[in-house]
């Protein structure tokens, strides 16, 4: 039964993609529903699959031998991923209603864009599902690559220059990331002759250069997960992508990188090499740097989705730090892993709801504005840990860390939560400033509301192992909640204080511009070098030609000996006879 | 060593049918040649029919050899002993000679019809018949008198054939060839005279038994070597070869390059095998000259302006490979394995080269007839118009370059193995350099032929069968490499 | 030892040598031809002296009459009206060329001399023990050298004839006149005659087509523009 479900879960998105192509050729554009209910249903079988229980499949015919599994890690992951994809698809039905009308009205560019989106959305989803269930390298990598490259269409959808820039940044980083991942996988697989992710994980733990392989994989997967330095595509791509696309990008796909880490990095394994411990520290530091840096930079942004992107970087930074803990303090891992899954699931839905909220604030339904903005703010508040599921996930992490007395880490996480609170404040405030009324669609706000509710109730529906969700005791509530009001008040005060000054908005994408100018510099240097090389080539070719002429002249002069030999055949024969006779006599005597 | 040439007593007498086959092999070519002078066949069929009995007779002899082993004939005429014998090697050479000559003969009517030659054409057929008879006699001869007579008749017939085109350049080149060939055979005769005076016999078996290493033998060997080297166009005595081929008719060139010069080389190998079984320096000298020949022939061919010069110079280089094998076959203290390898490689290369060179000359002749010019530049555009002729040229070139699966490859492989076993690295280097040079001049031809800038459309159509014959020879050169066990079996059969 | 010198043989040898040298190195072609005829007649005498009357007859017919006659016939019928017929070889030969050929002649003489010494041990005691063989050795060396030295095709052809006769004489002198040797010599004579005939006809055709300049071996005919 579950095998059938798996097949359907994987084939259904493919079928949906095929049906869009079919419609493009068969259905006249006036009657075509780009975002049909069939299209919306793409992720449903996967969602069902997540609740079908733990299963394993092996398929020898698939690529290098497929080994797929739904276990304690991949099941909840698949659940929140598929749920978010479903919500986002619903949201998209409302979000793109306007564009669909334009397309049906004969706007060719809108048709093209929608066609592209509807074709590649299910493919992205397919990649995402595949990488979650995959336990062998080939399937994982295939799914990851499919998701990465198909998602390009999601980012570039609008076709504006900003969208193109965002898509470019996304693609550049994605290619770098794919290269790093492939390098890491090949190195690990070649070292220990393994084809499964578990084998890679063992290799990383035991091999001589395991830390370097781990670094490659961490960075490669980190492009998706927004490791500091590789995060630059997020604030560039998110503001320009359509809200549902942003939701899945930030909610589901960003978590694919995290899932990759959880699967391949030797987390919670004892007696690792010193190099690996060093690597763990690097991960830890990078995580907190992202958590704080993104918050500090994000609050100055003006575009709500850019702020949310920085918030994602910040949140992922915290998760990165927790992953680092798994290497540095392996004992904490068994307790930490469910907390991380809960954190990830909650963040996925909450961030999805926040992104959908940005589109709701731009097309406000006729509700009381204050109620609406309270709802918009709710998932953010939950993210800070001050509410509902957020409290559970925060407490889960804290609880695990408390047990091993990692107070410093807890403190850092708490301060980071203040950053989150500040970001959420700025985001809601910016949304308030940019709010627009009208043109709302029931699917749009309906999906948003559903995602909101799902986010707040994450522990209830996420198929986590028994007993891994612990309710925070009452006396700890204050410790969990306080960063939120402090962050909000601090931010509000700061904003009031700075009201007088006209603080320019720093560009989204922070380091991208640094990379950009560096790359430009490098490019011009390469051009200079190429010109230099071209000159060198010209000279050497000329030299070689000169040499060839000289040699050829010599050869031709030498060949004139041929006519000499022709005329002195008789003499040469005499000489040869004498020479032979002399040689023979000399040898014989 | 000498048993490989079949110079020992036989155990069984030849069958009566073999005697008739021998007579047919030696006499029929001359008879049909004379008939050809009278009837001047202008079609392919009568020529092919005339070739058939000769080929059959040759086949009968080879079959008999395979059944009985070495065949030997001896007559005494007026106190002079004449001896013939058929060993595995001579059987093989006989087959190659007959089939190559038959291919050339079948090719000739078409060629003559297209080129409309002068009146001297009537001489072609008898001279060709004489040449084939003389060649067959050389492979069979087991005494020096027959050898000398056959060598001389072959030489004169070859000169006569080369002169037939009647151009001044051909006459000039032919005159030089005639003089050098005559003087070369006199040097050979001088050596024979010395041998005969000392050991009192012309029979090779008796000579082998009596000969001893002493200065007279050495001087005789040197004279014979120099004379035959001149006739075989071994470097540096090859000067006459290129102009002769440049101006001769295509079938004549094919026959000459394929067989005539090989006959002198065969005699040289055989006589030195008898006279100098254990010497080091003389074969070494030949080998060094051979290395020079490989490079020199390749360079000349590479810079050649005309197609026929290119092919003739390539012959010089290819002969170099055979010269390089001399110390492997003749030198002292050679282990049996490298000796056997070199022996096989030597003859396989000789035969492969014969087939390939004949095919190449025919293909080149077809190209020259079609374009009306003999220069390389005239080949521009032939790749599209004459793909078959070019293909045959390429196939023959594959054999010359020694690429698999040709006979050239098998032969070179055997030679290389032998050289590596005896650690003659210089020879290995020369062999590889020769291959590169061969590739260079072959691809130069193809570069010209694939030049599309000068489109021409007035190509002379070829007569039927002209390409087919050349193709058969080129394929035969391939087959010799692929089915090398048959010729090698015959070669080894000499010791059975 | 001196007494053992056979005066007839010595005289014959000296005459042969003198005519051979004259024939080989006379630049006047017609005179050289006549000297060749004379040389052939002397050769037949030598055959007679060596008890080979059959060979003497063949030599008279082939060597003297047919070959020499052929040479003289060609020289007389060369189309002298077209050009001034060179009855005289005016080709210049450089000194290094002459020197090397001279050295080669000496080398060949020594080489053949060494060989004959081994063959006939009494030659080691007195060089003049076998004057005919001695002269044949010199004739062979000179003939070879002259062949390599000259550029004039006709002179080269004559040098070949002299060389051939020398070789036959050497063969007969050393190996005796056994049937095998006689057969070998007969074949050689026949071939030499055929070769000379072919050569002479070729020369005639060449001069006819290209003029007398073509008689020089180094002459390169102008290729007709194709």
TrEMBL record, chain A:
Protein name, as recorded: Proton-conducting membrane transporter
Pfam families, per database record: Proton_antipo_M
Keyword Oxidoreductase: yes
Highest rank taxon of the organism: Bacteria
PANTHER family given in the database record: HYDROGENASE-4 COMPONENT F (PTHR42682), NADH-UBIQUINONE_PLASTOQUINONE (PTHR42682:SF4)
Topology of the protein relative to the lipid bilayer: Multi-pass membrane protein
Assigned keywords, A-Z: Cell membrane, Membrane, Oxidoreductase, Transmembrane, Transmembrane helix
Compartments reported by the entry: Cell membrane; Membrane
Major localisation: membrane
GO terms of molecular function: oxidoreductase activity
NADH:quinone oxidoreductase/Mrp antiporter transmembrane domain ranges (all copies): 134-363
Stored InterPro entries: ComplexI-like_HydComp, ND/Mrp_TM
Automatic annotation (TrEMBL), chain B:
Domain of life: Bacteria
Pfam family, one: Proton_antipo_M
Alphabetical UniProt keywords: Cell membrane, Membrane, Transmembrane, Transmembrane helix, Ubiquinone
Record's subcellular location: Cell membrane; Membrane
Transmembrane intervals: none
UniProt membrane topology term: Multi-pass membrane protein
InterPro entries per the UniProt record, alphabetical: CPA3_Na-H_Antiporter_D, ND/Mrp_TM
GO cellular component: plasma membrane
Residues of the NADH:quinone oxidoreductase/Mrp antiporter transmembrane domain: 141-438
Family recorded in the similarity comment: Belongs to the CPA3 antiporters (TC 2.A.63) subunit D family.
Protein name according to UniProt: NADH:ubiquinone oxidoreductase subunit 5 (Chain L)/Multisubunit Na+/H+ antiporter, MnhA subunit
Organism lineage string: Bacteria, Pseudomonadati, Pseudomonadota, Gammaproteobacteria, Oceanospirillales
TrEMBL record, chain C:
Domain of life: Bacteria
Major location (coarse): membrane
Compartment list: Cell membrane
Transmembrane segments: 6-25, 32-50, 56-78, 99-120, 132-150, 157-175, 181-203
Residue span, MrpA C-terminal/MbhD domain: 15-79
InterPro entries: MrpA_C/MbhD
Record key words, sorted: Cell membrane, Membrane, Transmembrane, Transmembrane helix
Membrane topology, record value: Multi-pass membrane protein
One Pfam family of this chain: MbhD
Protein known as: MrpA C-terminal/MbhD domain-containing protein
């Amino acid at each position: 039964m579950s095998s059938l479900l798996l097949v359907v879960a994987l084939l259904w998105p493919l079928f949906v993609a095929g049906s869009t192509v079919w419609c493009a050729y068969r259905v006249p554009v006036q009657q075509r529903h780009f975002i049909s209910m069939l299209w919306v249903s793409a992720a449903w079988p996967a969602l069902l699959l997540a609740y079908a229980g733990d299963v394993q499949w092996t398929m020898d015919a698939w690529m290098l031998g497929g080994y797929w599994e739904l276990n304690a890690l991949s099941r909840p992951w698949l659940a929140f991923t598929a749920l978010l994809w479903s919500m986002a698809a619903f949201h998209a039905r409302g979000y793109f209603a306007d564009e669909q009308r334009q397309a049906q009205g004969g706007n060719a560019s809108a048709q093209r864009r929608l066609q592209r989106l509807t074709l590649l959305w299910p493919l992205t989803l397919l990649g995402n599902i595949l990488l979650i269930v995959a336990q062998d390298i080939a399937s994982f990598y295939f799914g990851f690559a499919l998701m990465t490259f198909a998602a390009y269409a999601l980012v570039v959808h609008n076709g504006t220059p900003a969208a193109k820039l965002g898509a470019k940044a996304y693609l550049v980083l994605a290619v770098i990331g794919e290269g790093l991942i492939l390098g890491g996988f090949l190195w690990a697989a070649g070292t220990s002759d393994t084809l499964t992710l578990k084998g890679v994980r063992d290799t990383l733990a035991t091999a001589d250069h395991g830390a370097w392989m781990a670094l490659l994989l961490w960075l490669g997967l980190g492009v998706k997960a927004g490791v500091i330095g590789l995060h630059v595509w997020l604030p560039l791509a998110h503001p320009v992508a359509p809200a549902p696309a942003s939701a899945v990008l930030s909610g589901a796909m960003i978590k694919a990188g995290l899932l990759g880490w959880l699967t391949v990095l030797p987390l919670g394994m004892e007696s690792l090499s010193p190099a690996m411990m060093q690597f763990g520290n690097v991960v830890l530091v990078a995580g907190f740097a992202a958590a704080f840096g993104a918050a500090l930079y994000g609050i100055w942004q003006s575009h709500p989705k850019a702020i949310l992107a920085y918030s994602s970087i910040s949140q992922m930074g915290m998760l990165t730090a927790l992953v680092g803990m798994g290497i540095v303090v392996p004992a904490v891992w068994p307790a930490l892993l469910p907390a991380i899954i809960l954190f990830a699931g909650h963040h996925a839905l909450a961030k999805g709801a926040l992104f959908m909220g940005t589109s709701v604030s731009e097309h406000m339904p006729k509700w009381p504005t204050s109620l609406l903005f309270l709802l918009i703010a709710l998932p953010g508040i939950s993210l800070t840990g001050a509410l509902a599921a957020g409290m559970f996930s925060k407490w889960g992490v804290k609880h695990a860390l408390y047990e091993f007395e990692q107070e410093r880490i807890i403190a850092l996480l708490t301060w980071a939560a203040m950053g989150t609170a500040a970001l959420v404040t700025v985001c809601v405030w910016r949304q308030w400033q940019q709010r627009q009324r009208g043109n709302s669609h029931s699917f749009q706000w309906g999906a948003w509301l559903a995602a909101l509710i799902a986010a707040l109730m994450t522990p209830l529906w996420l198929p986590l192992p028994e007993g891994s969700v612990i309710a925070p005791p009452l006396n700890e509530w204050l410790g969990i909640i306080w960063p939120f009001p402090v962050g909000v008040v601090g931010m509000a005060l700061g904003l009031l204080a700075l009201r007088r000054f006209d603080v320019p908005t720093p560009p989204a994408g922070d380091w991208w511009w640094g990379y950009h100018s560096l790359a430009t510099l490098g490019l011009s240097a390469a051009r200079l070098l190429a010109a230099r090389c071209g000159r060198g080539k010209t000279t050497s070719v000329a030299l070689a030609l000169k040499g060839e002429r000289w040699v050829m002249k010599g050869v031709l002069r030498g060949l004139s000996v041929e006519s000499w030999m022709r005329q002195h055949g008789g003499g040469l024969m005499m000489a040869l006879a004498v020479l032979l006779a002399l040689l023979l006599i000399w040898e014989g005597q | 060593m000498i048993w490989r040439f079949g110079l020992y007593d036989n155990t069984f007498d030849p069958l009566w049918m073999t005697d008739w086959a021998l007579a047919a092999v030696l006499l029929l070519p001359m008879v049909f040649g004379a008939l050809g002078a009278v009837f001047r066949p202008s079609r392919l069929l009568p020529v092919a029919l005339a070739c058939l009995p000769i080929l059959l007779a040759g086949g009968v002899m080879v079959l008999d050899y395979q059944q009985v082993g070495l065949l030997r004939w001896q007559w005494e005429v007026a106190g002079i002993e004449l001896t013939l014998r058929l060993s595995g090697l001579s059987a093989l050479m006989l087959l190659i000679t007959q089939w190559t000559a038959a291919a050339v003969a079948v090719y000739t009517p078409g060629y003559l019809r297209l080129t409309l030659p002068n009146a001297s054409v009537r001489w072609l057929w008898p001279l060709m018949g004489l040449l084939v008879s003389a060649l067959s006699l050389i492979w069979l001869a087991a005494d020096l008198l027959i050898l000398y007579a056959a060598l001389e008749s072959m030489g004169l017939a070859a000169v006569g054939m080369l002169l037939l085109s009647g151009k001044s350049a051909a006459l000039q080149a032919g005159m030089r060839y005639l003089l050098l060939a005559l003087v070369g055979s006199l040097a050979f005769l001088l050596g024979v005279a010395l041998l005969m005076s000392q050991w009192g016999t012309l029979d090779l078996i008796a000579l082998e038994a009596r000969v001893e290493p002493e200065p007279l033998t050495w001087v005789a060997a040197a004279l014979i070597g120099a004379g035959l080297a001149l006739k075989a166009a071994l470097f540096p005595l090859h000067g006459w070869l290129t102009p002769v081929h440049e101006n001769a008719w295509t079938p004549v060139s094919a026959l000459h390059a394929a067989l005539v010069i090989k006959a002198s080389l065969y005699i040289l190998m055989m006589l030195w095998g008898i006279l100098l079984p254990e010497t080091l320096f003389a074969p070494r000298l030949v080998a060094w000259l051979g290395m020079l020949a490989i490079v020199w022939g390749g360079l000349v061919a590479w810079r050649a302006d005309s197609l026929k010069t290119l092919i003739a110079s390539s012959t010089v280089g290819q002969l170099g490979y055979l010269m390089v094998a001399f110390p492997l076959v003749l030198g002292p203290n050679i282990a049996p394995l490298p000796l056997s390898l070199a022996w096989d490689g030597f003859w396989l290369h000789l035969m492969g080269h014969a087939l390939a060179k004949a095919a190449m000359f025919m293909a080149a002749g077809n190209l020259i007839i079609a374009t009306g010019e003999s220069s390389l530049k005239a080949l521009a555009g032939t790749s599209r118009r004459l793909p078959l002729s070019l293909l045959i040229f390429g196939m023959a070139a594959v054999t010359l370059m020694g690429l698999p699966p040709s006979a050239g490859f098998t032969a070179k492989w055997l030679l290389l193995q032998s050289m590596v076993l005896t650690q003659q690295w210089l020879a290995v280097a020369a062999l590889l350099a020769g291959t590169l040079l061969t590739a260079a001049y072959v691809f130069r031809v193809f570069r010209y032929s694939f030049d599309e800038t000068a489109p021409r459309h007035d190509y002379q159509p070829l007569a039927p069968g002209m390409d087919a014959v050349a193709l058969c020879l080129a394929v035969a050169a391939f087959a010799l490499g692929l089915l090398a066990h048959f010729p090698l079996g015959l070669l080894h059969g000499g010791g059975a | 030892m001196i007494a053992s010198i056979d005066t007839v043989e010595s005289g014959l040898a000296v005459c042969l040598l003198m005519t051979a040298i004259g024939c080989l190195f006379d630049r006047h072609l017609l005179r050289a031809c006549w000297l060749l005829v004379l040389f052939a007649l002397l050769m037949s005498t030598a055959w007679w002296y060596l008890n080979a009357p059959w060979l003497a007859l063949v030599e008279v017919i082939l060597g003297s009459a047919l070959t020499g006659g052929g040479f003289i016939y060609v020289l007389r019928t060369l189309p002298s009206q077209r050009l001034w017929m060179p009855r005289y070889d005016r080709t210049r030969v450089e000194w290094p060329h002459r020197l090397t050929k001279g050295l080669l002649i000496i080398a060949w003489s020594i080489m053949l001399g060494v060989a004959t010494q081994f063959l006939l041990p009494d030659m080691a005691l007195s060089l003049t023990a076998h004057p005919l063989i001695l002269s044949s050795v010199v004739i062979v060396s000179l003939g070879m050298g002259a062949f390599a030295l000259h550029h004039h095709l006709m002179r080269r052809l004559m040098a070949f004839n002299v060389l051939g006769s020398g070789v036959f004489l050497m063969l007969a002198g050393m190996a005796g006149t056994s049937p095998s040797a006689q057969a070998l010599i007969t074949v050689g004579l026949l071939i030499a005659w055929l070769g000379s005939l072919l050569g002479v006809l070729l020369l005639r055709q060449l001069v006819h087509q290209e003029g007398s300049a073509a008689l020089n071996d180094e002459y390169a005919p102008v290729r007709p523009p194709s």
